[in-house]
Write a structure and sequence with these properties.
The protein has 348 residues and is α/β, with parallel strands linked by helices. It folds into 2 domains: 202 residues, Quinone Oxidoreductase, Chain A, domain 1 (Alpha-Beta Complex), CATH 3.90.180; 130 residues, Rossmann fold, CATH 3.40.50.720. It has 12 helices and 15 strands. The strands form 3 sheets. Strands 3, 4, 5, 6, 7, 14 and 15 form a 7-stranded mixed beta sheet that branches.
Length: 348
């Protein structure tokens, strides 16, 4: 089968690999029908994910059809259309029982697919812990509508859930990239009083204004002043930092009012500074970490009910054979790209 592979730092390449097989009773083999490219894939390519293993098939954002299951799998069966969770988790360890599935202590737990074990920018993928890592797609939900459930939409849902948003709040979302938009959609479900999005790209600013006209959009240069002037207590009640740029962490805490919640969703390429003397007295609560992707079933229900729609994010479509071209467009932000759908197995 075709498999897009992490060769070495700075280099991905298309290889022919054997179709994966069941290794453990909890495994499932999924035939990939559609995948996507995530910014985290670029972090692997650039060497910013030390745990990523050269030689693995990349990709952790995918939907497909179950081909076969191990003897211990009960939640899905061959023929089921499924979303694949970015995280594999046992569901039984201390962290899983607490809902912190990103910290699953199983050897295949946490972000493994496309990082430590073969992922889904391929024609097939083996999914460990299939009972927790796969969710059946409702019949009225298309592959495109379900494509982001297991990763960036799960991330946005998790971020909104832990941010303690109320209907009286002014919420600032920093970054209107794919994960930022998914976070925005999940924040909107909380119905806060006001939502402000900070984005520097003119194309993405226009996208937000076109699709979500009730949301205010401001540039980074004007963000601090705008948030102070358009909130009830001199700053945002909740800030979600989803950009991960050089200065967005600083912007996040500066735009927060005293006693606010600052949720860091972004993955940074280098350490960030927490200048405690400068922020002394603001009494901020910081929430950080990788997505706990255990809400996928609920997210699929919301999509089926028409309460979340991420299909406008798909601006480009390519077959797996042309994934190099897709990466070039995505990495360089060409042609107004937001997200790219990669179809697998249709031209073989």
């Amino acid at each position: 089968m075709l498999a897009y592979t992490y060769i070495e730092k700075g280099k991905f390449g298309m290889l022919e690999k054997p179709v994966p097989v069941i290794l453990n009773d909890g495994d499932a083999i999924v035939r990939i029908t559609m995948g996507s490219i995530c910014t985290s894939d670029l972090h692997i390519k650039h060497g910013s994910v030390p745990r990523a293993v050269p030689g693995i098939t990349v990709g952790h954002e995918m939907v497909g059809v179950v081909e076969s299951v191990g003897a211990g799998v009960t939640a899905v069966k061959p023929g089921d259309r499924v979303t694949v969770n970015v995280e594999t988790f046992c569901g039984e360890c201390f962290f899983c029982r607490k809902g912190y599935v990103n910290n699953c202590t199983d050897p295949d737990g946490g972000w493994a697919l496309g990082c430590r074990i073969d992922g889904g920018q391929a024609e097939y993928v083996r999914v460990p812990h299939a009972d927790t890592g796969l969710n059946r797609i409702p019949d009225n939900v298309s592959d495109e509508a379900a494509l982001f459930v297991g990763d960036i939409l799960a991330t946005g849902f998790w971020a909104a859930r832990i941010s303690e948003i109320t209907e009286d709040d002014t919420v600032l979302v920093i970054g209107a990239g794919p994960t930022g938009i998914c976070t925005l959609l999940c924040v909107m479900l909380k119905r806060p009083k006001r939502i402000i999005v900070c984005e520097k790209s003119a194309e993405r600013t226009e996208f937000i204004r076109m699709h979500y006209p009730s949301v205010d959009v401001v540039s980074p240069e004007k963000c601090r002043e705008y948030v102070a002037g358009n909130s009830d207590h001199g700053g945002a009640d909740v800030v979600l930092e989803v950009a991960g740029a050089d200065d967005t962490f600083t912007l996040a805490w500066q735009c927060a009012r005293p006693n606010a919640v600052v949720t860091v969703v972004a993955l940074y390429d280098k350490p960030q500074i927490l200048p405690l003397p400068d922020m002394y007295g603001k009494n901020l609560t910081f929430k950080t970490g990788g997505v706990d992707g255990c809400d996928c079933a609920e997210i699929l229900e919301l999509i089926a009910a028409g309460k979340i729609d991420t299909t406008p994010l798909i601006t480009h479509r390519f077959p797996l054979e042309r994934i190099e071209e897709a990466y070039h467009i995505f990495e360089n932000r060409l042609d107004g790209v937001i997200k790219i759908a990669i179809t697998a197995g249709t031209n073989r």
